[in-house]
Design goal:
The chain has 14 helices and 23 strands. The protein is α+β, with helices and mostly antiparallel strands. Strands 3, 7, 8, 9, 10, 11, 12, 13 and 16 form a 9-stranded mixed β-sheet that branches. α1 (21-28) packs across α10 (317-327), α2 runs antiparallel to α5 and α2 crosses α10 (317-327). The protein is globular. 40% of the residues are buried.
């Protein structure tokens, strides 16, 4: 993509309304623009990152055996009355009447709807287990929406729902999603700590939150130092029932509020670690809470009527965009992990008024596109400093600069955004390096 033709409204200064790093950088980098309190339009750069995260989430859900559906954003109040949550949910639920005076709501979650869909279409234990998921916009009318996409009212969420015949099978489904989450966050390049958590309004008695570790995180997380011995590669390779999963589920980790309630801490003081974290995922096992309330049954192997055991599993897809920035940035801007970066290469032509530079940059841009390497080509008539600042701000992993001096030597300058390291190399060496990385 030529930057001269792209829509990238970057800002030079930090917006006054932004309170945290991710909100400031998302606004400055031209990723989002606020339309109302806690409601944002996603501009091209932000949308590319959002879609990259969504793709990884989807791939790992599919890999775990979950089946994708798409449920509407608008739900009937009658469904929520069946479960008993319509009046109990609270003012975060946006409620309204349609033109026929029917009570409707903008879905904050989908336990009721998926249970109704399952109830109306599944009759036998032979159809179990099932795990259905979708990636859809949700709305929760927060009292004080703030921190950009980290605490907005409208947000993109992956929510999955498992149905099993008994508690033993349901635990296997829970563990499969636990593993899918480990893989997902590892592929995103993030260290995510699984934290035992209260189940809250969802219900149930087994729950884990997943927190990205970030110095600017919103909550304090206490955990056993044994967690630090488990690397991203080990998490990405995890399988249900494996030793790493057993270790992660048994290692002590909790938020500050829960930690303060513990009188006999199970971790020696020299092993206890405290870091700040950002919740980006939450999984629950809640048994028959919804199937019983909504009359969802299947016929068991012996002809008996059974209520399927359920779990639900959420990942804040849009929240992850902000979470990754909080965990990966510097004074110059965002540092995207390769897997979610909006572009893999930022190509900078230092002298658009120089025919030799323009031709070389155009030719390299064409070669990168032909090789399938997503490239943002800064072909604007701007000073070099402004171009470098833009690429740093938006966090493209690899910067390639073409200038007259380099061309005279037959080289281009290549910068690694994460480390800041620069080196000169031929175009052929650059292409080999980039294609090898994609292999």
């Amino acid at each position: 993509m030529r930057l001269s033709r792209y829509f990238l409204p970057v800002l030079k200064e930090d917006p006054s309304e932004a309170q945290i790093v991710s909100h400031k950088l998302m606004l400055r980098a031209g990723m989002i623009r606020q339309q109302a309190a806690g409601i944002y339009a996603w501009l091209p750069l932000g949308l590319k990152v959002l879609r990259n995260i969504e793709r990884i989430v989807r791939e790992e859900q599919n890999r775990a055996g979950a089946i994708e559906v798409l449920m509407p954003t608008i739900q009937s109040a009658d469904l929520w009355r069946e479960s008993g949550r319509y009046d109990a949910y609270g003012p975060e639920m946006l409620r309204f009447l349609d033109r026929h005076e029917r009570e409707m709501l903008y879905g904050p979650t989908n336990e009721e709807m998926i249970t109704a869909i399952f109830r109306d279409n599944v009759r036998s234990y032979r159809d179990l287990p099932k795990n259905l998921y979708h990636i859809q916009w949700k709305f929760r009318d927060e009292t004080r929406p703030r921190f950009g996409v980290m605490r907005g009212r409208e947000f993109l969420m992956k929510d999955a729902y498992s149905f099993d015949l008994d508690a033993e099978a349901a635990k296997k489904s829970y563990d499969a999603m636990f593993v899918a989450y480990l893989r997902t966050f590892a592929r995103l390049g993030m260290v995510a700590v699984p934290v035992r958590a209260p189940t809250g309004p969802i219900g149930g008695n087994l729950s884990h939150e997943f927190h990205i570790l970030a110095d600017t995180g919103e909550s304090e997380v206490f955990y056993d130092a044994a967690l630090e011995q488990i690397g991203l590669a080990e998490m990405e390779a995890a399988t249900p029932g494996s030793a790493v999963v057993d270790r992660l589920q048994s290692i002590y980790a909790m938020e500050q509020e829960e930690h303060e309630k513990v009188t006999d801490c199970p971790v020696p003081a020299d092993q206890l670690r405290k870091r700040r974290g950002i919740e980006v995922g939450h999984i629950f096992y809640f048994g028959t809470k919804y199937t019983q309330a909504m009359g969802c049954t299947v016929q068991g192997p012996d002809g008996q009527v059974l209520y399927p055991e359920m779990g639900s599993y959420g990942i804040g897809v849009s929240r992850l965009v902000g979470g990754i920035i909080e965990a990966s940035h510097d004074a110059s801007g965002i540092i995207w992990p390769d897997a979610v970066a909006p572009f893999q290469v930022g190509l900078i032509n230092l002298r658009v008024d120089d025919a030799k530079c323009a031709d070389a940059a155009d030719e390299l841009f064409a070669r990168l596109n032909l090789a399938g390497i997503d490239t943002l080509y800064d072909d604007r008539d701007e000073r070099g400093g402004a171009k470098f600042a833009t690429m740093d701000l938006i966090g493209v992993p690899t910067h390639v600069t073409i200038g007259p001096k380099g061309l005279d030597k037959g080289v281009v300058e290549v910068k690694d955004r994460k480390t800041g390291a620069k080196e000169e190399m031929s175009v052929e060496a650059l292409m080999n390096k980039l294609t090898a990385r994609r292999a």
